[in-house]
Design goal:
Oligomer: single chain
Number of strands: 9
Largest sheet: 5 strands, antiparallel
Radius of gyration: 16 Å
Structural class: alpha+beta
């Protein structure tokens, strides 16, 4: 099952695919699959490893050796995949929402590619299912809804669980 979304610069998809395969193999998953999608700069990954753990380990790699990652820009762990339909998205977020503790604040982030669904409609429907307070600036958890055409990846993560290679490299030099 697809559990990673990887972004890269346009036209560097083959290099990114190879880089990700090497990383996952190094982490102990030689059966991982990386696929280049028809969307420019977007790859999907399938690993037997915990995707959140994978992102954490890659972040450590970048902090240790910033040059070790050359092509991946962002790596996003995905917990569940559904058909891109508002009621499906709403249902799964509702099921996963127990990962948000009672005193935690949350934010909903939607990235849409090849989809005409209304972000505001999704946000309204999903937010209605969650009792917690919203914090756009300092959420404890982010409900991530990644729409890739007919499939949607959903995760409830800490902000630190999504890896932006650029931001991580910048944080080293600061």
């Amino acid at each position: 099952m697809l559990n990673l979304i990887i972004t890269c610069a346009r036209h560097l998809e083959p290099e990114t695919e190879e880089e990700m395969m090497d990383i996952l193999e190094e982490f102990g998953d030689s059966d991982a699959k990386i696929a280049i999608t028809e969307m420019s700069g977007i790859l999907t990954g399938e690993t037997n490893l915990d995707p959140v753990e994978v992102v954490r380990k890659i972040k450590e790699m970048v902090l240790d050796e910033p040059w070790s990652i050359r092509y991946c820009l962002r790596i996003i762990p995905i917990q569940t995949i559904v058909e891109t339909q508002i009621d499906e998205i709403e249902r799964v977020v509702s099921e996963l929402s127990n990962q948000i503790l009672d005193d935690e604040k949350y934010r909903i982030s939607i990235e849409k590619r090849n989809s005409g669904l209304s972000s505001s409609e999704i946000i309204t429907k999903v937010a209605n299912k969650i009792k917690n307070k919203v914090s756009l600036d300092f959420p404890d958890k982010v409900i991530l809804i990644e729409i890739l055409g007919s499939k949607t990846g959903i995760s409830i993560l800490k902000k630190s669980d999504v890896l932006s290679i650029e931001k991580t490299k910048r944080s080293i030099s600061e």
